[in-house]
Amino acid sequence: MQRLWCLFELAAFLHSREAGTKTRLTIRPTLLGPLFLITVFSLIIFNAVTTFAWVLIESFWYFWLVVLLLSSVNFWLTAHMGRGYCRTIERVRDEIAEFSVDKLVSWCCCVGHKDPASGVRLTCDRKIILQCIQIWFGTVNAFENRVQTEIVRILVDQLSNQVLSYGQLVTVTVPITWGYLDVVFDQFLVGNYADAIHSLMRGLTYGLAMSPSLILLLFRLAYYLRRKRSSHLLDLLMSSLVILCGLCLFVGFVALDLSTFNVFLPGAPIAAGMIFCVPTVTAALLVWRVVPKTKLL
Q1: What's the predicted TM-score (pTM) here?
Q2: What range does the record give for the signal peptide (predicted)?
């Protein structure tokens, strides 16, 4: 926040709230849009690679090797941008924590209070805005203290926790459910109703439970690994570490999924789906209940 008029907008918003009421701010950073789009695009590519590899590759191990290799680049880019986003949150926090009206700039002061085109004398916006702040908050220092405490706390919570709500993550992971719905309808058309129900259970479990929880965990990990390393190669490896941890968790869920259906209960797809669904949903509930919120203060 460097412009004086941004300060005035913030001051007017705070003044509009009644004394003692909780300040409600909804903040959506511009970087979040590309980050979500890349995540959705990565999942679409993952679905496409999985579909074609399943048809073209007979070996089970070669299939997963090809899928992971071709999908890893997009997921790595998502992790790298996620770490950059976490650094941005920290930088914004530091700037607002040291917020001072004296550091803000206004156009009228920059041009010496004269219109560059006509030379007409301009009224000083800074004087007018500071008078408004003193009337609204008593003193400029009182306003600065409120920004440095209340606003910075709300800002960090919005940028780090509220943007990754469960609803947001389910929206991002919709392509996973799409992929399984394609299989479900195909199995229904040929009369494999038990397999179709099993595939539907898997799709809902991956799309509504496992994937949002996995993204939440990886975002927390990206926050702890957010610091930019001195070596460019080491910084790239930190992003790779985030993806590697996510891969290990993903492989664990897939192993549970495939082993219940192909090894333990090959003739009972619905029971196999339940055995996979129940512990996965339970683990997801624990993640959303237990994993602490990001705190930069």
Answers
A1: 0.80
A2: none
